[in-house]
Write a structure and sequence with these properties.
Arc Repressor Mutant, subunit A, two-stranded antiparallel sheet, alpha+beta, globular
Amino acid sequence: MSTIDAARRRAILGIPVARMTDDHTSHEAAEAITISGDRERLCTAILAEIKRRPGGMTAGEIADALGIECHTVGRRTSDLFNAGEIQKSGSRRWHGTGRRQNVWIPAT
């Protein structure tokens, strides 16, 4: 699994997980996933998986490959996108969700 350097880690983990208007339970969950290290571990695993696939991956494909929930991938791809680690390829693919999903690729 590839690692994320210290500056990039700070950029990713510095992005708020919960909005100011979210319920307090969302803020508690956001703090817990960050403090536990799960947020960083998930971001690292997702970024490594995207880098392994030259054609990019959808959130559903990443979820299938890593054995995690699609909504979990969606939250962490937002972190990676906002930190400048990944970008949308401009294409979308169908997945088992019945909807087309963005294809994520490493940022250039």
